[in-house]
Specification:
There is one protein chain. The protein has 2 domains: 49 residues, YegP-like (Double Stranded RNA Binding Domain), CATH 3.30.160; 35 residues. 52% of the residues lie in helices and 17% in strands. It has 2 helices and 3 strands. The longest helix has 36 residues.
């Protein structure tokens, strides 16, 4: 069974980064910059331990729903403000 691989490199800044490559050599993930090689290897180890059992938390639908909820609330607030202004204007004109 073919597996992916981690490629660890030291950049021009002296910091360490790694890429996770798929079986065809494509980059699947890129790490943050680590100050030491030991810390970068620790990052690789953490991914190896956690990734296989990690669940997917899809927030894309929640974000769309939240945006729609906010838009509806804004629209309602604008309608209330407009109605209040119209009521106030009607009260002012009838008092004249």
């Amino acid at each position: 069974m073919a597996t992916g691989r981690f490629v660890l490199e030291k950049g021009r800044t002296g910091k360490f980064r790694f890429n996770l490559l798929s079986t065809n050599g494509q980059v699947i993930a890129t790490s943050e910059a680590y100050e030491t090689k030991r810390a970068a290897l620790g990052g690789i180890s953490a991914i190896q331990k956690l990734a296989a059992g990690a669940r997917v938390e899809d927030r894309t639908d929640a974000a769309v729903a939240e945006a729609a909820k906010k838009a509806a609330a804004t629209k309602k607030a604008a309608a209330r403000k407009k109605a209040a202004a119209a009521k106030k204007a009607a009260g002012t004109s009838s008092a004249a």
